[in-house]
Write a structure and sequence with these properties.
The chain has 283 residues and is of the alpha/beta class. It is built from nine helices and 13 strands. The longest helix has 14 residues.
Length: 283
């Protein structure tokens, strides 16, 4: 039995003028993998391709050691998916949708369903068209979690959520991942959410994987560097990635901050995921 809930190997796909190019990604059981990238980088295309909504041109996608062709029904019963847009009819109520969908999921937990609706303050009898965009997203999350899936795939789930709902969702995901058999793939451009809970970060840009790294090790090995104009030299510039001039001097990302130690006019700080994304070209 593999240690991975999701394995993507050399995946290629094409939709219009956009292409996914030789993508390899592994989602280890008991971990949260954050998929980051600017809007249009390929995050949603990647998710739709691994779910067989967009047909791949080559490569392999395994869920729990199986391809869709080997057990599509079983796989779909064991994953929960939240897309960046609502997939349910807006003239239906949560109760109506639950009654229609739950028979397809033997593990669907109605008690959990209603508990999540209550905790998200969602009226189970109101039609979805009366919900705000954020509330519709919260309902999609409720549906994805109610059948207790082992793999949860989230495409921009916190977009449109207020800070309280975002914090609540992060808490839920953190609780889920305490079970070492559960895995989460979390696509977002709100990288502060991943700062809190992600184990691994994969950055995608223009349909290609730029890097995949363990989050804590990645944040530890880089330094965000602030340099006074008077301190900048031709020896310092090559040490920096994404060098930018500011009103006060220069900023960049450094892989080896020890080489900058002891130089007057230089300040180094621990970066955020967003800092790394910006200076490595993801925004």
């Amino acid at each position: 039995m593999s240690e991975f809930a999701l394995e993507v190997n050399s995946l290629n796909a094409k939709i219009g003028n956009f292409a996914l190019k030789d993508i390899t990604l592994k989602g280890k059981k008991g971990t949260i993998t954050g998929l980051i990238g600017r809007n249009g980088a390929g995050k949603t295309t990647f998710i739709k391709t691994i779910l067989n909504i967009i047909q791949k041109t080559s490569g392999q996608v395994l869920f729990f050691d199986k391809e869709f062709s080997e057990g599509e029904v079983e796989i779909k019963q064991n994953i929960g998916v939240v897309f960046d847009t609502l997939i349910y009819g807006v003239n239906m109520t949560p109760i109506g949708i639950m009654k229609m969908i739950s028979p397809f999921y033997p593990a669907f937990n109605k008690e959990k369903f209603f508990d999540l609706l209550l905790r998200f303050s969602l009226n189970p009898k109101a039609k979805l068209r009366t919900y705000s965009k954020g509330m519709q997203m919260m309902f999609s999350i409720v549906m994805a979690l109610s059948h207790n899936p082992d793999l949860i795939i989230l495409d921009e789930p916190t977009a449109g959520l207020d800070p309280i709902a975002r914090a609540f969702l992060i808490d839920i995901l953190f609780d889920i991942i305490q079970n070492e058999e559960k895995s989460i793939l979390f696509s977002t451009h709100i990288t502060s959410d991943l700062d809190k809970i992600a184990d691994y970060i994969t950055m995608i840009d223009n349909g290609k994987i730029i890097f995949t790294e363990e989050k804590d090790k990645m944040l530890d090995k880089y330094a965000l560097v602030h340099i006074e104009k008077s301190a900048m030299s031709s020896n310092i510039a090559p040490l920096l990635t994404g060098l930018k001039e500011t009103a006060f001097g220069f900023e960049g990302l450094c892989y080896d901050k020890a080489k900058l130690s002891g130089i007057d006019g230089i300040l180094t700080t621990r970066p955020t995921i967003e800092d790394i994304m910006i200076f490595r070209g993801g925004f």
